[in-house]
Design brief:
Layout lengths: L24 E4 L2 E4 L2 H11 L7 H20 L5 E8 L8 E3 L8 E9 L3 E6 L4 E4 L4 E7 L2
Antiparallel strand pairs: 1-2, 3-8, 4-5, 4-8, 5-6, 6-7
C-alpha cells in the first residue's frame, strides 16, 4: 500500500517506510516561502565584499540552483504546506500529517484505531506504525508534489 497524492501521483521523496521527506519552508499564514531563499541569500551575502557588482547576483542564483538540484535529484523532497493543528485522535485514513511536530517528514494515515492504555495506534501507508496519545497535537499538511 503506497502513499499517494489526491491526484494519484506518488509524492517526491517517498521512503520505503511511508514517510515523505519535505523541504523546509518559512510559512507566513498559508503562504510558504521556499527554503531555497536561504542558500540564495547566503550566496549573495558571501559575494558582496568581492569583485564586480554582478557577482552577488550570480552567486545567489548558483546557491538557489544547488539547492534545487539537491532537493530534486540528490535527496528528493516534496513541498508541503502546513495546514491546521489537530489532535491525533482526529486523524482519518488518507490524511497527510507531520508525525514529529510542525517540521520534518510527512506521512499518510492508512488507519487509526484505539490501542491499549488509552493510546492511539496509527498505521501509515508504507507499513510504518506509530503509537500516540490521542491528545498529541499533529500538524496536517498538503503535499504539493
Amino acid at each position: 500500500m503506497t502513499a499517494r497524492l489526491p491526484d494519484g501521483r506518488t509524492p517526491r521523496g517517498l521512503r520505503a517506510d511511508g514517510m515523505v521527506r519535505t523541504t523546509g519552508f518559512v510559512q507566513v499564514g498559508r503562504v510558504p516561502i521556499s527554503s531555497g531563499v536561504w542558500p540564495a541569500l547566503a550566496g549573495l551575502l558571501a559575494a558582496l565584499p568581492f569583485g564586480p557588482s554582478w557577482l552577488p547576483i550570480a552567486c545567489a542564483a548558483a546557491g538557489f540552483a544547488l539547492w534545487e538540484v539537491w532537493t530534486r535529484y540528490v535527496q528528493p523532497c516534496s513541498w508541503a504546506v502546513n495546514l491546521d493543528s489537530a489532535a491525533a485522535s482526529e486523524l482519518r485514513a488518507g490524511d497527510w500529517f507531520r508525525p514529529y511536530g510542525g517540521i520534518g517528514p510527512a506521512a499518510q494515515v492508512a488507519r487509526a484505531q484505539p490501542a491499549p492504555g488509552d493510546l492511539l495506534h496509527v498505521a501509515l501507508r508504507g507499513g510504518r506504525e506509530l503509537t500516540l496519545s490521542p491528545d498529541y497535537r499533529v500538524r496536517r499538511v498538503r503535499l504539493r508534489n
